[in-house]
Amino acid sequence: MKPIYLSVCALLGAFSVCAQNGPSNYQENIKKAEEFYNSKDYKNSGLFYSKAFSLEKNARELDRYNAACSWSLANVRDSSFVQLSKIAATYSDHEHASQDTDLDNLHSDKRWEKWLDQVKENHEKAEAKIDRPLMAKLEQVLKDDAEPIREWMAAEKQYGVRSAEALEKKRIMKDKHAANQAIVSKILDEKGFPSQDAVGGYGVTAVFLTIQHADQATREKYMPMLREAAKKGDLPNSSYALLKDRTDLGQGKKQTYGSQIVTDPDTGKSYVRPLEDPENVDKRRATVGLQPMAEYVKRWNITWDAKQYAKDLPQIEMLDKKLSAEN
Prior knowledge:
Elements (H helix, E strand, L loop, with lengths): L25 H13 L3 H14 L5 H13 L3 H11 L6 H6 L10 H20 L2 H28 L4 H28 L4 H17 L3 H17 L4 H14 L10 E3 L6 E3 L8 H7 L5 H4 L9 H21 L1
């Protein structure tokens, strides 16, 4: 199984656990599949993957790979190969697949070597497309983006939001982000948005986070380019959704997907920044692969109630304007 993303095929008529009261969208079913995998209930893991795929035609490659793992471990070879066949034209991690013990049950099947040969061919083609100097530069950008944020947040937690220590860490973070912005802007201006084939997932993430953490003018400048990257599949739709939310808020509009959360330094209470049509936000989030709001906001100790949020929205807008002016 792949370590970052988790992953099946048919058998939709045999849901022993996935009853009508089960999860209703793609991401919820993927999560249930992962939970069953982790508890070693591989058949039900496969069944939840199947339900997820019935809800989303363009399922993620690594979800399908991990579905194949679940079916292999459940000793349902045909279902495993159905999933592997669906990613055969694009999957390129030959080293992982050839060593993945989750797929050991498939090795005696004649279909295995044929699939693995295709993966090896994909890998060789992918290697030829990689821009290693650019990939290395963007991986450093990603590191320089993340570390100052962690240090700033740690200082806020230890010393307080308005403490001298936290404010100094925030200044360092902004300086790092400005330096990253100069690097990434030059890349985008000269080369356009780099493909995943050229710089890998970390490289693409570095570009996205740099623009997400940039000033408003920079976000607006490159937003059309990142929109096109999402359409082409080089940038996850979920990432573009976060960029759209932050950019729209910066223009005085309400956010669409509810991704932007702020903590009031005076009260320590976090809130969802002004959101359009809160009662339908989960439908919009599902279309871009984001988890439901109730689950997302738990990390800020927020209890999501769309109707109550709608009632509170005028007060939230006033508070948001106040905090934005202070920032």
